[in-house]
Amino acid sequence: MGNAHADRSAVGDEGRAGRGLRIRAGAAMALVLVAFLLLAGHLGQMQISQGAEYRRLADQQQMLDRELAAWRGRILDSRGRLLASTVQRWSVYADPQAIADPDGAAVLLGSTLDLPVGRLRERLARDRSFVWIKRQVTEREADAVRGLALPGIHMRRESKRLYPQGRLAAHVIGFTDIDGRGLAGIEARMDALLRGRPGSESVLCDGGRRIICPPAGNRTREPFDGFDVQLTLDAYVQAIAEEELAAAVRSHQPECATALVMDVLDGSLLAMASWPDFDPQAPADSPVRNQRNVAICDAYEFGSSFKPVVAALALEDGTVRPETTFDCHQGRWRIGRRTLNDVHAYGLLTVSDILCHSSNIGMAQVSMALGLERLYAGIRRFGFGRPTGIALPGESGGIMRPFRTWNDYSVVSVSFGQELAVTALSLVRAFAALANGGRLPQPHIVRSIRHTTTGREIYSASGALGATHPVSAATSGQVLTMMRRVVEEGTGRQAISAEYALAGKTGTAQLLTEDGRGYSNSRHLSTFVAVGPVPDCRIAVLVTLKAPTRHGYYGGTVAGPAVRNICLRTLRHLRVPPSEPSPILALGAHP
């Protein structure tokens, strides 16, 4: 019996053990099931509520977004000659996180790309995934970098701006930075149109950021290329202006100088030159002041060059006629506390004589006869005192004080170009109006804008002269006749030509002293402005030199020859027929 009892006890223990094992196994299975359900629920929640965020994070790790640069538009002259274009160049960059040996890579890249090794070590040690090594390298350098096959060193295509005409029209064209942003001239003013709109693409890459799959169609946005800008400048006329201006600069050594050639019929600029100049391909190699476009940025008191405007206003008002006579007091005349002087002593002079011989005393009396209010209103009609609106950055509106600040001396000072600062562009525009029948043209330098690839035109210069008529055709004709005398008999004889009949006006203005409290006796602004051929004028040409230091300073002597040469060469280039022989030249007169 004892053995039977023992056997039953053993069987009971085994049953209890089996039940415990089954209970524990069931509990474990239940826990696993609960964990699985919790995990499934969490995954479901993540998929539903946070799926987009995790997909975004995965894309950041697996996808590489790259910008697709737009093709920058070209800049052309009026005849389609290339002034600015774009080419593709390789640029070298690095992913420092993928470089195992930064020191070794720095040594190899430094010798290959002619870069300081220390600076490269610093860049390759940065905790970034992108640093530039060298941008816009040559093809030889690009091939050498490929040959190194360094992990973490990559190359990408970039656009580089080129100026095939060198320094020609640099102040007008301007330049861009290394990223292709316009910083000066047309490049800056038209930057948004020239630059276009970049595209983008996303490519699949591995952990080392190496591309392993090309972009899918829905992950690519094509760039929109920029627009071509065609200027009114004629590269040949621009070269003429720059050559003649450079010759004048070499001869007379001024502080700065400018030359302008304007089509009097529509106000388009055929040439706009400034000195000193710079290389738009390497603007940093010249002082910043060399980038200043003197023709539109600097405003001066142009002196006697302003006299034709005053004469035209008096003739238009009916105050005087060309034959009206004034006493010029033998070259010295006192008005109140001021004494006016002429270079030569003159007695009685007609208005035509006054302009021909550039008498300050005579022109002061013409202006006084016109009166302060009508003088001020007439000058405003010619557009002085505000920018012309030409499509170039930095244009000055000049300095024209409000009428309430003018006094009895102002009517005298303004008559020979003092108390009023204007730009070279605004002055040559006024001469264009006197040459085209009295219509004030709207200066413009952009001829058309059209898309680089599609050819779609979005702008075309209208060629309209503008609605302002500061003087009548009859008055402008009278002034034109008087200015022809200036060239053939008066102060502008250095510009006389046997081939084309020119009309114009000299200007020799005293510059302000450094403290601005008076006029210098040693520093002058030497100017000559001419139009031609008379009577059917095509162009207006201005040359001005600031503070010439050699071989004289009178406008006719310093600027006259340059104006004459620019006029002759430009009119020949435009195939304008020669003028009828001048009666003055027929009598044997010479400049």
Q: What is CATH's topology name of the largest domain?
A: Beta-lactamase
As for the number of domains, it is: 2
CATH architecture of the largest domain: 3-Layer(aba) Sandwich
**Residue share in β-strands:** 15-25%
Mean pLDDT: 88
As residue ranges, the low-confidence spans are 586-591
**Structural Rg:** 39 Å
Largest sheet: 7 strands, mixed
Q: Describe the global form.
A: elongated
**Could you state the CATH homologous superfamily of the largest domain?**
DD-peptidase/beta-lactamase superfamily
Structural class: alpha+beta
Output the number of helix runs.
20
Which features does this protein show?
alpha+beta, disordered C terminus, Beta-lactamase, Penicillin-binding protein 2a (Domain 2), 7-stranded mixed beta sheet, 591 residues
Structure explained in plain terms:
The protein has two domains: 58-95 and 157-226, Penicillin-binding protein 2a (Domain 2) (Alpha-Beta Complex), CATH 3.90.1310; 235-586, DD-peptidase/beta-lactamase superfamily (Beta-lactamase), CATH 3.40.710. Helix 11 (307-317) runs parallel beside helix 13. It is elongated, with a radius of gyration of 39 Å. The model is unreliable at 586-591 (pLDDT under 50). The longest helix has 48 residues, at 2-49. A hairpin with a 6-residue loop joins strand 20 and strand 21. Strands 2, 3, 4, 5, 9, 18 and 19 form a seven-stranded mixed beta sheet that branches. Strands 11-10-22-21-20 form a five-stranded antiparallel beta sheet, with helices on both faces. It is of the alpha+beta class and 591 residues long.
